[in-house]
Amino acid sequence: MKIAIGNDHAGTDYKFKIVSHLKSKNIEVINHGTDDNESVDYPDFVHPVAKDVERKEVDFGILLCGSANGVAMTANKYKNIRAGLCWNNEIVSLIKQHNNANILCIPARYTTEEEIITMVDTFINTDFEGGRHQRRVDKISSCY
User: Whole-angstrom Cα distance, residue 106 to residue 88?
Assistant: First the structure.
């Protein structure tokens, strides 16, 4: 499995925790995020992750910023991206089961280290249910 990750300054510390956790599971991680806490513009780090996911160069993407709203809005501009903003584990399950999300967006300022690791594991291990949900997912990019 291969995952692209991106973050702004608010998500740097959690990004390192996630990368370490994923590597311990022998998951390859492509780091498109900043590696320090100096203020940066989150779209600069979202675009490479969204492109990797859209081109199927990775299996999934993970994005972090303070609220995760900015990274989710930016990623969702891409036609085949379904980025879900998640602040708890139940929502993570639902974005995969019902929306076939391919990017997990985490609000670094509103989650704990324990929560983010659990959310990442849930995202990776939860399958899309298909069925009636597939019909709905098919309608998401119909405006293109």
Answer: 9
Cβ–Cβ under 8 Å, residues 60 and 104: yes
Element (H, E) at 6: strand 2-7
Are 99 and 131 spatial neighbours (Cβ–Cβ below 8 Å)? no
- pTM, two decimal places: 0.96
C-alpha angle with apex 33: 75 to 119, nearest 5 degrees? 70
Which parts of the chain have pLDDT scores under 50?
A: none
Q: Domain 2-140 class? A: alpha beta
Catalytic site residues? 65, 98
For tokens 């779209």, what's the residue?
A: 43
DSSP 57-93: SSSEEEEEESSSHHHHHHHTTSTT--EEE-SSHHHHH
